[in-house]
Amino acid sequence: MEAYKKEFIEFMVESQVLRFGEFTLKSGRKSPFFMNAGLYQTGGQLMKLGEFYARAIAERYGTDFDVLFGPAYKGIPLSVAAVTALYRLYGKEIRYCSNRKEVKDHGDAGILLGAKLNPGDRVVIIEDVTTSGASMAETVPILRAQADVEILGLMVSLDRMEKGIDTEKSALSDIESKYGFRTGAIVNMAEVREYLSAHPVNGQLLITPEMGLKLDRYYEEYGAR
User: How far apart are CA 86 and CA 49, in angstroms?
Assistant: First the structure.
């Protein structure tokens, strides 16, 4: 496993973004783990998060693209943090773009904020975590309605590796099938489990044998095929 992935797993835990226990998801599933990217709140956290995204994006898609699109609302700070890191780490001037939930009819009018989209722009989408792929049903039409862009792919921070509500595929695999572009994640839950089963964080082993059994049961029922 790459060093930045190990660092990111520890970063999620130390930021209390990734927790283990008993959680009820929006889908109604009872999960032994939960990720809340809204808990990245400080300048230092966002700077580090942007760097992790930048490394994963460069590894998956390279840096020869034009726009990083972050869907409102959580995608807005993610896109800003990541384009800043792409410049700092790789010297690449990537434009950021996001959508508004409501179209603005004055001043900086329209549905977009940040950079405008131009025909031929190569776009990477950035999100925190995708569990159902429903957000792409909103995001992809917005992008394609603004200009004839090429969507290179989607990058999320964590791939939960569980099936969707109406499919046996994972959300990321389902997105690839439906929309025809690649997806990626900084880490997936298999990598998280592998690392945290052997490496304590702040002196605590988070994936104990008992937690491992809970994860086994969860993925027996909800794991992607």
Answer: 12
106 is catalytic: yes
| C-alpha radius of gyration, the chain, whole number | 18
Of 6, 30, 74, 106, which is the active-site residue?
106
Whole-structure pTM over 0.85, yes or no?
Answer: yes
Q: pLDDT tens digit string along 28-56?
A: 889 999 999 989 999 999 999 999 999 99
Q: DSSP code of 39?
A: G
Q: Is 26 a catalytic residue?
A: no
Angle, in degrees to the nearest 10, between helices 171-179 and 134-146: 30
Peptide linkage before 179 cis (omega within 30 of 0): no
Q: 109-119 burial string, b = 16+ CB within 10 Å, else e?
A: eeebbbbebee
The residue from 104, 116, 169, 214 that is catalytic is 104
Residue 12 to residue 6: CA distance in whole angstroms: 10
For 164-224, the DSSP string reads -SS-SSBHHHHHHHHH--EEEEEEEHHHHHHHHTT--BTTB-SS-HHHHHHHHHHHHHHB-
